[in-house]
Amino acid sequence: MELEKIKEIVKTRLSEKRFHHSECVMNRCIELAKKFNVNVEIAAKVGIAHDIAKEITNEEKLKYVEENNIEIDEIERENPTLLHSKIGADIAIKEFGFTEEMGQAIRAHTTGITNMSLLDKILFIADRTSIERGFPDIEYLNSLLEESLDKAVLYIIDKKIMLQIEKKAAMHPDSIIARNYLLKNGKL
Ligand SMILES: [Fe+2]
Ligand SMILES: [Fe+2]
């Protein structure tokens, strides 16, 4: 599906604020795709669509995964908000004709995942550092991006983990797995 059409549909499913976030993430994805030689149109589509399932109620999320045979774990069952990634990927593949690779980027955007692709990393970073977020260490983060994409991803994973610790909230094992993979195999 064309980017403009996807945008129109996303707009009908999200609040004004979340749609604005999605547009900002799309713009940041475009910027990063150009920087790291990724297909700009694909990155833009993944950016605009990444939170398509964010405003579905938790009850509906649990219903959706059951009806669509999406496997979930204990942490996701207890924190259904996390499921917006898996559900968003499913919707984008089925409704917008996204490839598995594009779906994977949406699936991985909240927690990270082992062996992330370039596209996964771009969306992961774009979601945290889109302009409207006012990411506090943006200059430092951008300097890491000059050195390597992996350094920036690791920095964001570390921030996310620290935030979960501060909130005394459960941590999804995929974030730890993503971090361990980067420590071992990343360009750091
Ligand atoms: Fe999200
Ligand atoms: Fe987001």
Overview of the structural elements:
The protein has 188 residues and is mainly α. The chain has one domain (3-185): Hypothetical protein af1432 (Orthogonal Bundle), CATH 1.10.3210.10. The protein has helices at 3-13, 16-35, 40-49, 58-67, 74-78, 84-96, 100-107, 118-129, 138-147, 149-166, 173-185. Helix 7 crosses helix 8 (118-129) and helix 8 (118-129) packs across helix 10. It is globular. The model has no long low-confidence stretch (mean pLDDT 97).
Question: Would you kindly provide a brief summary of this structure?
Answer:
The chain is mainly α. It has helices spanning 3-13, 16-35, 40-49, 58-67, 74-78, 84-96, 100-107, 118-129, 138-147, 149-166, 173-185.
Task: Name a few traits of the molecule.
mainly alpha
Count of distinct structural domains: 1
CATH class: Mainly Alpha
What is the helix fraction of residues, given as a range? 55-70%
CATH architecture annotation = Orthogonal Bundle
Structural class: mainly alpha
Bound small molecules, deduplicated: fe (ii) ion
Number of helices: 11
| Main sheet makeup | none
Question: How many E strands?
Answer: 0
Q: What are the segments in which pLDDT stays under 50 over at least 5 consecutive residues? A: none
CATH topology: Hypothetical protein af1432
Termini separation:
36 Å
Q: How would you sum up the global shape?
A: globular
Tell me what portion of residues adopts beta-strand conformation. Answer: under 5%
Nearest-integer average pLDDT: 97
Order of helices and strands: HHHHHHHHHHH
